[in-house]
Amino acid sequence: MTSTPNPTAAVLSQDDLKTLVGQAALKYVVPGEIVGVGTGSTVNKFIDALASMKDQITGAVSSSVASTERLQALGITVFDCNEVTELSVYIDGADEVDPNGYLIKGGGAALTREKIVAAESRRFVCIADESKLVQNLGKFPLPVEVIPMAVNRITRQFQAMGGTVVLRLKDGAPLVTDNGQHILDVTGLQISDPLAFESQVNQWPGVVTVGVFAFQKAQVCLVGTASGVKTLT
Ligand code: 5RP
C-alpha cells in the first residue's frame, strides 16, 4: 500500500475525500486513449477533474445517461461501447470494497452498464472514500437489476436465502433504470464467497445484473482517508 500524506487531513469532509480520489485517478488515464467512466458522486469528481485533460484523451465510454451528460457538458466526447474493442482503464466508485477488490455496486442504479464497461477494460481503478471499506461484502443493501415480470419470483429466491428485499422506488413508483428495468435492494445476505455468489444469482431467470462485482473486481483501489489517498492493489 502507498499513501500520499495530506497536511489538512483533520478537516476533510467525505466530499473532500471524494474530490481527492477523483483527482488521484487522473494518473491512470492514458493520453491518446478512450477512458471508461463509471457513475456516482465520486465519479462526478473524477469527471470534473478529467476536464482538465480533455484535450489529451480521445474521449470516454460512459456507464450511464447521467455520466454521459456530465462528460458531454464538459466537452468530452462519449463513444458507444460498441465502438471500442478494449479500454485500458475503467474508473468507477463503489458502495463496498473488500480486501480482495471485490465490490458491491449499483447504489446509483447503473450497475449493468458499469459491469459491461468494466468487462471491456483491462484495468478497473476503483475510487472510494474510506467509509466504503469492509472486511466482508453484504452490509450495504445489494442492488440487483431485474426484468419487471420477474420481480416477485426473484424476491422469493432471495427470501429463501435469508434476504430481505425492497423494490427501489423513485417518486413513489418503481425506479426504472437506463435499461428500462427495476432494482431490488437486498439485505441480510451472507456473501462469504463473492465469486460463487455472483455466479449463482446470475443463473436466475430475470436477473439482469447482480451488484456483486467479483468477476469484474477492481485491480486498484484509491481510498480517500483522513491522512490522504491510499492505493490498494
Ligand atoms: C452506481 C454505483 C456507484 O459507483 C456507487 O453507488 C458509489 O456511488 P457514490 O460515489 O455516489 O458513493 O455503483 O451504480
Automatic annotation (TrEMBL):
Q: Does the keyword Isomerase feature in the UniProt annotation?
A: yes
- One MF term from GO for this chain? ribose-5-phosphate isomerase activity
Q: Which residues form the active site?
A: E114 (proton acceptor)
Where substrate binds, per the record, is at: T39, G40, S41, T42, D92, G93, A94, D95, K105, G106, G107, G108, K132
A Gene Ontology BP annotation from the UniProt entry: pentose-phosphate shunt, non-oxidative branch
Against Gene3D superfamilies, the record matches this protein to: 3.30.70.260, 3.40.50.1360
What Enzyme Commission number(s) apply to this enzyme? Answer: 5.3.1.6
Which superkingdom does the taxonomy of this entry point to?
Bacteria
Entry keyword annotation includes Isomerase? yes
Please name the pathway.
Carbohydrate degradation; pentose phosphate pathway; D-ribose 5-phosphate from D-ribulose 5-phosphate (non-oxidative stage): step 1/1
Q: Which UniProt keywords apply?
A: Isomerase
* InterPro entries on file: NagB/RpiA_transferase-like (IPR037171), Ribose5P_isomerase_typA_subgr (IPR020672), Ribose5P_isomerase_type_A (IPR004788)
Swiss-Prot/TrEMBL catalytic activity: aldehydo-D-ribose 5-phosphate = D-ribulose 5-phosphate
Q: Which GO terms describe its cellular component?
A: cytosol
What does the similarity note say?
Belongs to the ribose 5-phosphate isomerase family.
HAMAP family annotated for this entry? Rib_5P_isom_A
* Functional description taken from the UniProt entry: Catalyzes the reversible conversion of ribose-5-phosphate to ribulose 5-phosphate.
**Self-association or partners: how does it assemble?**
Homodimer.
- Name used for this protein in its record: Ribose-5-phosphate isomerase A
- Write down the species: Rhodoferax fermentans
